[in-house]
Amino acid sequence: MKEITVQELDNLQKDSYILIDIRDEGLRAFGMIPGAVAVDCDTEEELYSRIDKLPKEKILILYCEIGRRTRDLDESLLPAGREYYSLKDGYTGYIRYLTDDEDNRAEIKLKSEECIRKKFHKQLFTPFAKACKNYRLIEEGDRIAVCISGGKDSMLMAKLFQEIQKHRQCNYELVFLVMDPGYRPENRKLIENNAATLGIPITIFETGIFDAVDTIEKSPCYICARMRRGYLYSKAKELGCNKIALGHHYDDVIETILMGMLHGAQIQTMMPKLHSTNFDKMELIRPMYLIRESDICEWRDYCGLHFLQCACHFTDTCTTCHEDGTTSSKRLETKKLIAMLKKENPYVESNIFNSVGNVNVDTVIAYKKHGTRHHFLDDY
């Protein structure tokens, strides 16, 4: 299919074309091009059928995440009699085009910081500070590697760390660490642009993880995630850090709890901090632990920011890589299940979150501690 660039799209009359987003629901949740029409389809035949119902006089411009799926569509199978284009580099190309504009960087930086102090103080800064205090995540003399993947969560985490450091409750240092596992140049540039826009002084180091897992057929995302974690620990330790901070939020926690029960037959949670088993005297902390994803999205949209969602070069439909081996579809299903339950019970999210802090061991059949299994009959 013929390609059209974002710049060329800007030169077209707005009413002369229709933008069609063919990405999956999980990716669309992280942003769409304004005015685009979402087309859910499992097969190309279904896509073509949906397209045939759109106004005949309009130019149709299709886009996916990076432009590969739409570029490779067989145009001969599309309904005849109309003009089709694939948006070059897809949604990623669109947001990279927006972040290339250096003129409004100072304004965005100021807005992103002011709204954390004012408009979103209760939703973002307060729960961030509360998690740091309640779970003792920041301590005197710490040197923390703030790990930035390029997405909305880790970028906001970096801004919150910058803000809380101004309060000087204790003395600690920050290193804003970005690992490049083999990103395409345009994806790496997007991360660099966003960091520059937000005033985050990042340190980038390169690894060959993507190439290393390229030929792995079984659970490549799981292995990739584990390798990335190991490289982050190793680089952080090399830089003199004693902690790495990851951007997991409240919704990640409750989804992980529920997925463990439904798909893993186990009760466990994503801890706010934990000791590394392979790197001596290193800790992992999650200061976004009490922040809701909806509030992160509202901050992102209010500031007019556009972030990298997935830079994986293996697939156009990967929404996020999870170290527990769960797929993005399972996480999305769990998110929808929680939303459905919330309609009947507005406290369901907090109940799930609090359940792992209210465990009654006297009523548990069995549990594990330090890898040793204990059964209720042991002391019956």
Entry keywords:
380 residues; Rossmann fold; 15 helices; six-stranded mixed β-sheet; alpha/beta; 2 domains; Oxidized Rhodanese, domain 1
Task: Walk me through the structure.
The chain is of the alpha/beta class and 380 residues long. It has two domains: 3-99, Oxidized Rhodanese, domain 1; 105-332, Rossmann fold. Helix content is 42%, strand content 14%. It has a six-stranded mixed β-sheet, with helices on both faces. A five-stranded parallel β-sheet has the order 1-5-4-2-3. A hairpin with a 2-residue loop joins strand 12 and strand 13 (372-375). It starts with a strand and ends in a 5-residue tail after the last strand.
Low-confidence stretches: 315-326
Spatial sequence of strands, sheet with the most strands: 8-7-6-9-11-10
Rounded to the nearest angstrom, the distance between the terminal CA atoms is 70 Å
Kindly report the CATH topology of the largest domain.
Answer: Rossmann fold
Structural class: alpha/beta
Task: Tell me the number of helical segments per DSSP (H or I, 4 or more residues long).
Answer: 15
The level-1 CATH class of the largest domain? Alpha Beta
Globally, the shape reads globular
Superfamily at the CATH H level of the largest domain?
Answer: HUPs
The SSE string, one letter per element, is EHEHEHEHEHHHEHEHEHHEHEEHHHEE
Overall number of domains: 2
Helix content: 40-55%
Mean pLDDT figure: 89
Total strands: 13
| Main pleated sheet | 6 strands, mixed
